[in-house]
Amino acid sequence: MKSYRIACIPGDGIGKEVIPAGQRVLAALAESQRDFRFEFSTFGWGADWYREHGEMMPADGLQALKPMDAILFGSAGDPDIPDHITLWGLRLKICQGFDQYANVRPTRILPGIDGPLKRCEPADLDWVIVRENSEGEYAGVGGRAHQGHPIEVATDVSMMTRAGVERIMRYAFKLAQSRPRKQLTVVTKSNAQRHAMVMWDEIAVQVAKEFPDVKWDKELVDACTARMVNRPKSLDTVVATNLHADILSDLAAALAGSLGIAPTGNIDPERRYPSMFEPIHGSAFDIMGQGLANPVGTFWSCVMLLEHIGEQAAAARLMAAIERVTANTKLHTRDLGGRATTQEVTDAVCAQLALK
Ligand code: NAD
Ligand code: K
Ligand code: MN
Questions:
Q1: Where would I find the Isopropylmalate dehydrogenase-like domain in this sequence (predicted)?
Q2: Which of ligand 1's atoms lies nearest the C-alpha of 91?
Q3: How far is the CA of 183 from the centre of ligand 1 (A)?
């Protein structure tokens, strides 16, 4: 029987609630499929590890992850530790260490879920946002001089390389080409950011020539937020920079009903390293430890994980089980206006998977 090695990194906050839930669902799926199995290894990295060891993960942590087939990640972020320490010390270390340069974020309105887009039917909204995940605004270039003094200067430089932009643009065009509408919107801010974003635009024109069957257009990022709300059907695949897509995808998730349902994959398209799948949300300090976390974003991330490792049939079965559960409003967590707990939703998805 085929066996896949999956690293689970719950991290902090509700990551510790949704990742065990995701692991249970994957185990239930493997049990009912009977044609593959999972070997899970859980890594207790994150804020607790930081309090004990002074770092978010061990220096040789990437070595431990390297032989894995995929990584399931929760969230990094703790109320008592500055966010930039938790983010850079764990999630970005893995994304950048494994060159997971494509961050892929699908959005759909799942059955039973009521989003704020009143003029939009569930079938009308089917987006994938591709986020550049290795450089741009999160390249880590910058610094502070004269810290704390009135003359202090601080910079975060958005650094884009031609190679980095070309590879994410090609990834996005290819993804758009594989989808029914073959449509891509290239998001920029090249009116204001007149160097890197102008290069981004030029590269879009150049890469588009390789994909003559893909219809594509350009949109400024601020206008794109309005278009997502006013003309959601006009979008399909979207590619944007690290920061722009980070923001657009939280908006996309909220428009689809909740931040708690949205999944993402941090993908190394060249498959040199394991890719990492996670809900797009963070530690959610306001609800942690109360059983209120919606695990659907994690389950959908598990669907993406299964697609990535080549288990398409199992991925489709899990997605169908998730949709049967969201269709039942009694199984909605509080973020969706319901009263179900993380565990009740997880039990319901596992029960769906046990049905033949
Ligand atoms: P957040 O995503 O944690 O929470 C935003 C809001 O959405 C909160 O009201 C929260 O209760 C709600 N929410 C999020 N996920 C939910 C779920 N599954 N079910 C129900 N409600 C949910 O964003 P934030 O408050 O900006 O960040 C909190 C911490 O998480 C910070 O430390 C931040 O840096 C970190 N963070 C980490 C990641 C990551 O690891 N990938 C992503 C985003 C934020
Ligand atoms: K996350
Ligand atoms: Mn984000």
A1: 5-349
A2: 40
A3: 30
